[in-house]
Structure formats: structure tokens, C-alpha cells
Sequence to fold (392 residues):
Amino acid sequence: MSANPTVLPAKATHQQTRTFNQQLVLRALHDHSPLSRADLARLTGLTRTSVSHLVSSLIEDGLIEEVGRGRSSGGKSPILLRVAPDGRHLIGLDLGEALFSGAIVNLRGEILRSIHLPLEGRNGDAAVELVFELVDALRADDLSRVLGIGIGAPGIIDTSTGTVRWSVNLSWAELRLGPLLEQRYGVPVVVANDSHAAALAELTFFRRPRPNNLIVIKVGRGVGAGIILNGQLFQGDGHGAGEFGHISLGSADAMCRCGREGCLETRTSMRALVDAAGAVEPSITDEGALVAAFLAGVTSIRRIVLDAARELGVAVGWLIGVLNVRHVLLVGPVAELGDEWLGEVRRYARSSVLALLARDTQIEFGHVHDDVVELGASALLMEQQLGLGLIR
Ligand SMILES: [Zn+2]
Fold:
């Protein structure tokens, strides 16, 4: 393995070198715990003396901990180390669904507490107020260990400045959400697209060994993909990589909230399915009722859901054809529709791409669905603050 997440500047200061080396140690432990000090020296290429100093200061800082002794290879059995799961806590927010959700997450990606607040049609400044409410409620806990706030939001997000450039669902344009929260709460804040965050959650917490390439498609209120290439999140030149929910399929039908017609999202998102189902079965007004009708085998609803699955499948096939990524995961509220929906997506994805590529590609549900964006937003913050090397 290589534990070389970023490149150290040629004329690094002593402090830069130390931070860089600390990050090497943290990343090795994050990926391969538990490890001895000798393992760490071997994996990072640092001297045993350096490792020893770095480990002492990281233990003092509460970020790593000793977890007993490993097997001896002759001499004294070595002490094993790991990242301390509760060494820091993170606040992760998901602003992508009809409920705004927030969670306190530890360094192992375990959710310690979560809160959901209904959006109820709010947008613009009122939606920002709801974000404050969410963070205020989560901050009622002990904040001494909170590393910062990570946010997954729908739309085009400039992660480098924390700016929501355009979020059609929330009527936000050029909203400096990151700086706004940093000012209010006095902790580091990082903001990313919600599908990008979902991809980081899978990459950071659930995939071992970590795949080089991965596509995570989130289907909920919207449809979007997070694309991991060469082990890192690929955001595109303008942070819009994976926005395939707003590729227009041409036929002029429902108007999309983005202002165009025929977007994939207007035909295959959970919101689109609820709307289409409600038009034939007026009792269906939310995702729960849609899923129940589909699973109960209501013929008209089955047709709506499976037609959409086929359409999404073809679009997934395009992604596979363009990128030849072998692992494709579907996450989000859509997972409630279960294996029949997934099977139809898989079948149409495979039939719309070269047989050789299709044969090698796995299309599955991801590990988590409800909290995937909160976890991913937390992973993003860990990346930013601890340097795990996941984003270029
Ligand atoms: Zn659109």
C-alpha cells in the first residue's frame, strides 16, 4: 500500500513536515488498524524514532489509542494502535431530502445521535434558518470534541469556498453556506454535493480494500452521482461531476425544476415517482405510500416504478460506458423499493453497454441509505482536518 496522500511542498517548514507526517500515520491507522509502531514505520517510510514521537503526541491529543498487544515475532510483543473512535466527533448534515437531517458521528463512522427536521416547502433564507436549528439542536451535546461541521447539499457546490453555487431544490444561488456557519459556530465547516458526500461515505467507512474507482448514485428527492477515480473524489472542473440527473432525455414532458424539460430526475427520482403514482392513485402522497403500493404489487404503480428503473438503468449504462468503472452502488431512499427495482436497473444498464464492460461491472445497493450523506459529510471533514487524501 502507499500512504502518500498529498505532496509535501519542496521547502516545507518544520510544522508543515510534522503535520504531513502526522497525517501519514493517521491515514495508515485509519486504513489498516490495528498497527504497531514498527508496522507504521514500514507503511509510512518514516523512521521508528519519528513514528514514536508522532504516536506519543497523537495519543496525548486523544486521536489515537493503544489497544493491547500483537503477536511477537521473536522479542517483546508489540503494542497495537488504532484511531480512537471517539477521539473527535463530527457534525454531519444532509440537506438533500424533504427532511433535513443531522448527526453526531465518530471517527469510525458510527452515528451517535441524529435529528430530522421537516423542510415543509421552505427554501431560500427560511431553509438556511432550518440549517441553524439543526446545528443548534445537535450542539446541545458536549462540544469539546467536535472537529467541525460537514454538509452534503443538493446542487453545484464549490467545496473550496463552501459556496452553494446553485441548488434548484432549495432556491439557493451563490450562498456562502460554509463561511456563514463558520462565523456562527466558530468551528471548521466543509460543504459538498450530497451525492459526492455519499460516495465519500462508502469509500471512507465501508469499502475495504478501498477501491480505486467507484460510482455511487444517490436516488432520492433528486438523482446524482459521486464519482471516485484513482482513489479520490472527482468533482469536475466546475464541481458539477455526476450531475447526470439533469441530463435531458429530450422528449418534452414534465418541466424540471432546473428549468428544462425531460431531465432524468423528473422521470426517475423518488419525487417523480410519488407524483406519477399520485396521479393514478390519489392516496399516494409520499415515499412511504409509494413503496408500500409497489411492494404490495399494485399493477399501475409497479408499471410506473419499473419503467423508471429501466430508464435509470440505461443512464447508468452510459456512465459505465464512459468511465468503465466496475463498482456501481445505488444509495438513498430508493433502496426501499428493493431488489426487484435494482434488478431492473441492473438489467437495463448491462444491456445498454458493451457486453464485455457489462460483464465485469457490479451494480449493487450501498451499505447505508438513511445516513449516507451525514456520514459522507463527516468523512469530508475528516479529510479536510486530518488529511486522509480522498479529494484531489
Ligand atoms: Zn433538470
